[in-house]
Amino acid sequence: MTEPETLAATGAAPLPRQRRAWLAALLGFFAPGAGQLYNGEPHTAIVWFAVFAVLNLGFFFGLPNFPPDLPALGLLVALTLGALLLQIAAAVHAFIHARRVAPTPLRRYQRVWLYGLMVIALPALNLAASPPWIKSYYAPSASNVPTLLVGDRFFAEPGYFHHHPPQRGEMAVFRLAADNGTVYVKRIVGLPGDSVQMRGGVLYLNGTAVPRKAIEDYPTQFEGSTVAMHQYVETLPGGASYRILQVGDGGPLDNTPAYTVPAGNYFTLGDNRSNSLDSRALSEFGYVPAAKLIGRAYIVYWPLARLGAKLN
Question: Which of 97, 101, 119, 171 is most solvent-facing, going by the fewest CB within 10 Å?
Answer without folding.
Answer: 119
